[in-house]
Structure formats: C-alpha cells, structure tokens
Amino acid sequence: MAPTPPEHGPKVWNPDGDSRAAALARALKIDCIEQREAAGCYLFYDDGQLVIGRGDGRREKPMAVDFAAQWQQRQPGREMLLKAIGGRRPGLSVLDATAGLGRDSLLLASYGAEVTLCERHPVVAALLKDGLERAKSDSSVAEIATRMRILEGEWPSATVKDKPFDLIYLDPMFPESKKSAQVKKAMQIFHDLVGPDDDSDSLLPAALAEARHRVVVKRPARAPWLAGMPPQFAVTGKALRFDVYPIKAMPPK
C-alpha cells in the first residue's frame, strides 16, 4: 500500500497567495497556510523551484529536485551503474520503480535509456514533476530530460502493462547503518518524509516477474541481498554494489 502521510505531515506554505501553491495543496489534499511555525515541514516555491523544508527553527537547507545540479555534481568515471545495466543501449526501456529524488534515473537516461520514474509518495512525486519540468528548459540536461517521465503511484499496480520494461531498477531505502544512524542533513527531510521501506523485500519477486531482460538492485556494499535472493553477479565498489538478476540476454546495442 502507498504510504499514508503522517498526522503532522507537510503543509503548503503560501505567504504570497501564489496560485501554483494553492493548486498544489488542493492536488495533494493538504493544508495551505500563510504563516509557518518553527516546527513542521513545508512545501513552498522558492526562486521558481518547488522545495520542501522545515520551519524557521531548523537549519537544514530546503530541498528541491534539481536535475541540472545533479548533473553538474555527478562523478564522471564511476560507471558502476552503466556496467550493471549492461552498457549503453539507446532506447532501452527502464522502470526505476523506487525513483526517490531521481538521481539514478538521470544517469540511466544519460546513457540513452527511456526511463519511467515511479514514485508512490505524492509529495516526492510532486517534487520530481517540478524538477523534470525545469530540466526540460535547462540546456545542460534538456536532451536527457526528454527520455524521462514520471509515473505516480504504487508499483507494480501503477506500471503500464501493455509494454513490458527491458530492465527494472530497484533502489529501496538503505537499511540504517550502525556507524552512521543520522543521515546527512541534506537528506534528513527526505528520510523523515518517506519513512522506511518496510515492504522492500516484496519488490524483487515482482520485478523478476515483470522485467523482460534484467533486474538491477542498488545496495550498500555489505548489506544482505534483497529478499534474501542471491544475484547472478554484482558490480561492487567500496560503499555500494549493484546486484544483477539476468532474465534473458539483453537486446543488442
């Protein structure tokens, strides 16, 4: 089931009577307010971006989905994900079933894949939609953005069934590390908003039943296999690994 917003979940902060903010609050069925308090979590528009942030009493920087910034901050040469998906195959259809903030979806689309970003949390989906619309007008990522689309809802029920995906990509929320129980401040809002992925083990069997060629799962390097199912092989780095579950030979490049 899709996660239910917490009782004291985010509100839309709209001090200037912005029609976009009012429409967003109606679409998300959450309160729209003119004044925010020190406590709480708020969606608002800042310099043309939809952002989510705390009240005045918290120091975290409000967070937006900014694909242009993600592209600038990428680390060229670290092509673990590219190896895991089997190399560049223009037109490869990929479902990112746990899209989150869309960072890996952007990389997948940069490799030439046609990427569907499925996000079940309505607030995160709204941030993704706003980020993708802005990306289409930014010359640094506009061409990549043409290969990305947002699909809001619970996967697999939200998946378009008439065209199976070549590859399904899973990146469930990482299990909490004993060495670093507190996530980076930049991500704390996101983690508090979506909560843990308690149903993540159910994703892999569903993906294996639906993908045409391959399933790839992103995990911490020392984390157990998702659903306890060993992959055929993995692409492993110091902090991360990509577990690969081939189904049949990938389409030609």
Automatic annotation (TrEMBL):
InterPro entries: 16SrRNA_methylTrfase_J, SAM-dependent_MTases_sf
Binding site for S-adenosyl-L-methionine: 103-104, 119-120, 171
Signal peptide: none
Major site of localization recorded for this protein: cytoplasm
Keywords: Cytoplasm, Methyltransferase, rRNA processing, S-adenosyl-L-methionine, Transferase
Function summary: Specifically methylates the guanosine in position 1516 of 16S rRNA.
HAMAP family: 16SrRNA_methyltr_J
Protein name (database record): Ribosomal RNA small subunit methyltransferase J
Lineage: Bacteria, Pseudomonadati, Pseudomonadota, Gammaproteobacteria, Cellvibrionales
